[in-house]
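Troubleshooting log. The previous structure file for this entry was overwritten by mistake, so regenerating from the original sequence record. Sequence copied from the archived sheet and checked twice against the printout by T.R.
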Amino acid sequence: MKFVIVFVALFALAIAAAAYPQVQIIELKSDVEPEHYSYALKTSDGTEKQEEGTLVNVGAKDEHISARGSFSFNGDDGQTYTVNYIADENGFQPQGAHLPVAPVA
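Regenerated output below.
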């Protein structure tokens, strides 16, 4: 019985690996400081990501990270989708031409 479970698990893993080809990192840049960080990443499948963040109110009770960045990827329909965002004390705030916008109240 254990053999069957292991065999089925390995078979499923082999099928999944064939369905998702390996993606290579083409470019990676990063800079990490105690109160600031930034990174940029490009992969062989066309995905790009970049972000920079800063520690805000250092040492205070409401100390937090404020980040700004973007990512883009190629969709199944062949289009490139880009999301720009801010993440701070007001939460994650994405913007993109393909994202729905809440109606104005």
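Residues 51 and 69 are 4 Å apart (CA to CA). Archived copy saved in two places this time.
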